[in-house]
Design a protein that fits this description.
- By secondary structure, the chain is α+β, with helices and mostly antiparallel strands.
- The protein has a single domain, classed as Catalase HpII,  Chain A, domain 1 (Beta Barrel).
- Helices cover 30% and strands 26% of the residues.
- The longest helix is centred in the first third of the chain and has 21 residues.
- The two termini are 36 Å apart.
């Protein structure tokens, strides 16, 4: 179910995309994406038959995680939020964001979105006008002034292929809060503007600061998986996942424990040996997103080191 080896031109293009992010990291001395965030440790207690299906140990796993904003410097602005998770005693890193779908879906849209985001909201507005699907996905993902990162739901929008005891399955994951908090979005108009509401009070790092009290309270979240058939639509990270036919199954519970110094960037290709990322061999192939993301993280990490 994977593609043939990519051409030299595609490899060169992937190198160029990674270099754009590396340059941004080098200039800013920060992460190329999700620059503002805070890290914590936790315990992921896996339970149930599904862990056996995935080939995961039915036990507690020590994890490090990093909650972050996609691009906003101010926690109280309107933005997509992220959760990166690395399992310390298990070969598994996961990258998740609020919203079940991505704002881009292949190499050209990734580059265009990145450049538009770097230039400013007028260019972002043009991007969303050109790609209405991206604006729809943004509306489902962006949150203004969340009180706590632990109040939000995070999705691994790019699926992975897993060789289970029942055969190969396409899977996406999500982390949901112990108590669902609804954020009213009906008054939002300029979704491409990440600045805070003029009436909002509080420090720029207020959500990051709240993570410390969440750890003291040992807030919990639930890790879930959903399996689906291997189809072009299900591989596309910008297309809605078939949740009705592929219900979410709880894998275990994550308990926040303590805040950490800045966590090292995750490796999105760090997966159990019976899991695999999707591979693409054309510029517009949605299966290329996994390799592009891994390359971006790798080159950005090297640029800052």
């Amino acid at each position: 179910m994977t593609s043939d080896k990519p051409s030299f031109g595609l490899k060169l293009y992937a190198w160029f995309v990674g270099s754009l992010f590396a340059l941004r990291a080098l200039v800013s001395k920060e992460r190329a994406t999700h620059a503002k965030g805070r890290s914590a440790s936790g315990l992921l207690q896996l339970t149930g038959d599904t862990t056996t299906l995935l080939g995961l140990p039915n036990k507690g796993i020590n994890v490090h995680m990093r909650f972050s904003n996609l691009s906003a410097m101010d926690d109280l602005g309107l933005d997509v939020r992220g959760l990166a998770l690395t399992c310390k005693n298990l070969r598994l890193d996961l990258v998740m964001n609020t919203g079940p779908t991505l704002l881009f879906w292949n190499a050209p849209t990734l580059v265009l979105f990145t450049l538009s985001n770097a230039i400013g909201k007028s260019f972002l507005k043009r991007y969303y006008k050109r790609y209405p699907k991206a604006l729809t996905n943004l509306k489902a993902a962006a949150v203004r002034a969340p009180e706590s990162y632990a109040d939000l739901s995070y999705y691994s929008q790019i699926p992975v292929l897993i060789a289970t005891i029942e055969g190969e399955k396409l899977a996406r994951f999500r982390m949901i809060p112990d108590q669902k908090i609804s954020y009213d979005k009906k008054d939002e108009k300029e979704w491409w503007d990440t600045s805070r509401d003029q009436h909002t009070q509080g420090p720029e790092n207020s959500t990051r600061l709240k993570l410390a009290s969440d750890c003291e309270d040992q807030r919990t979240m639930f890790w879930q998986v959903s399996f689906a058939a291997y189809t072009q639509s299900n591989c596309d990270p910008s297309v809605a996942w078939p949740e009705k036919s592929s219900p979410w199954i709880t894998l275990g519970q994550l308990s926040l424990q303590s805040t950490l110094e800045e966590m090292k960037p995750v490796d999105s290709n760090r997966l159990p040996q019976w899991w695999s990322t999707l591979r693409g061999n054309t510029f517009k192939d949605v299966n290329l997103m996994s390799e592009l993301r891994a390359g971006i993280y790798r080159r950005s990490r090297n640029a800052r080191s």
